[in-house]
Amino acid sequence: MPEEKHEPKPAVGNEFNRRDFFVKLGLGSLSIAAAGTAVFAYQFLSPNVLYEPSPIVNAGKPESYPLDSVTLDVNSGIYVIHAKEGFFSVGAVCTHLGCLTAWKPELGIIACPCHGSKFQRDGTKIEGPAPKPLPWFRTWVSDEGDLMVDRSAPIRALQFVRV
Amino acid sequence: MAKTATEYFDNLRESRIWRSIFRSGSGSSTLHRSLAIQQNIFLHLFSTKVRRRMLNLSATWYLGTLTFGTFLILVVTGILLMLYYHPSVPQAYADTKDLQFVVSSGLFLRNLHRWSAHAMVFLVFAHMFKVFYRGAYRPPREFNWVIGVILLLVTLLLSYTGYLLPWDQLAFWAITVGSNIASAVPLLGNKIHFMLLGGNLVNANALLRFYVLHCMILPLAAMFLIGIHFWRIRKDGGLYAHQSEPATVRAKAMAKQAQ
Predict the structure, then answer these.
(1) Bigger pLDDT: B188 or B25?
(2) Among B131, B80, B86, which Cα is nearest to B106's?
(3) Quick one: pLDDT band at residue A1, thresholds 50, 70, 90?
(4) Is there a contact between A151 and A78 (Cβ–Cβ < 8 Å)?
(5) pLDDT tens digits, A71-82
(6) CB-CB: which of A16, A48, A49 is closest to B2?
(7) Cis peptide before A10, with omega less than 30 degrees from 0?
(8) Best of A44, A45, A49, A50 to disrupt the B interface by mutation (most B CBs within 10 Å)?
(9) CA-based angle B25:B27:B28, to the nearest 5?
């Protein structure tokens, strides 16, 4: 109601009146609350526990992989390869857009069914659209004698495991 | 002299972007104020003019607004809880525990949801008592009272269906007992029990049905009815004010004539 409005005293210099003080106080508290809400929302939306499969895969006994064989593990998305230099493991997930690639024994290459990328069995790229070679994963033999692969640990290529 | 917050807001209201969203610009004439209400999809449900004394605490105790406030809190916290909850038998209880002990702020949100639910049921009853004892349920507002009674039922059903979702012993037996009460309905009782649970036992189907009711059907029904409920306040002549009710005015005039 305009007729009931009490005009606040004009501010002089750096002074401000009571109404301005409370407006600033109110807006300040709202900004702090909004910032806090944003932090809480971010923390809430990032899960603290994931129910995803472990990145470490037990690939079984090395003896089960014949020499010169390429074996795809569909569930974990890795190839276990027994070359004459030793064992190694490369990722089976295409570096283009994440499709699962397949080993073509008749051609001796790894091929992606989605967009036609092709790789050697050591992961090097033959042709695109994949931008990068398939990664090598850290591979070792456990105390029980099983071949282990850590999918979360890419390593430099050509580091073979001898059994 | 530094600009005041009001001046900043007036400048914002004159800007092109603001004017493209809200057509009424700054200004405090009666026309400006009416347009600001009428041209806003949410505000146009309400009256453009309200009697000043109807905004006092004593008129309504703000019980209806507070109820709506708890409903908004429940919608927001409920949607956030849905992000971590799977309505399936193996996962429901574990997800509830995760919300309490693992998810950041999960305990806070779950408690806020629960306490707001209790507060909403309390406030709905308080609102109805206030309306009843003021006589605000009488014509021409009788249909809005009926909508209010349906909203009470929706509120209670929301409470009841939400009760099952933690999938603990309390939930299981409460819904077992509650659904058996439904089977006391003459003739149709057993059919209602079967349809409500999606089977003969409180099991996976019942959990999913209660989840869908709790998170989709009942909230949508509540929003729909709340929209009508608010709109009817304007259509039925605004909030109830005894002195200016047509019946009171008529009775006063008659009494004056009789003198």
Answers:
(1) B188
(2) B80
(3) very low
(4) yes
(5) 999 989 999 999
(6) A16
(7) no
(8) A44
(9) 135
Which chain A residue is nearest to residue B82, measuring alpha carbons? A45
Domain ranges of chain A: 10-45, 58-155
The 10 Å Cβ neighbour count of residue B248 is: 12
- Per the CB < 8 A criterion, the answer to whether B204 and B162 are in contact is no
Contacts of A44 in chain B (CB under 8 A): 80, 103-106, 109
pTM of the predicted protein model: 0.82
Residues B128-149: pLDDT tens digits?
Answer: 999 999 989 988 899 999 999 9
Q: Which residues contact B138 (CB under 8 A, 6 or more apart)?
A: none
* Interface predicted TM-score (ipTM): 0.78
Amino acid letter for position B100: Q
C-alpha distance from B167 to closest chain A C-alpha (Å): 20
Strands A86-91 and A102-104, bridge-based pairing: unpaired
Residue B120: its H or E element: helix B106-134
Query: For residue A42, what is the nearest residue in chain B, using CA coordinates?
Result: B104
Contact A151, A91 (CB under 8 A): yes
Q: Which CATH superfamily is domain A58-155 in?
A: Rieske [2Fe-2S] iron-sulphur domain (2.102.10.10)
Q: What is the pLDDT of residue B247?
A: 80
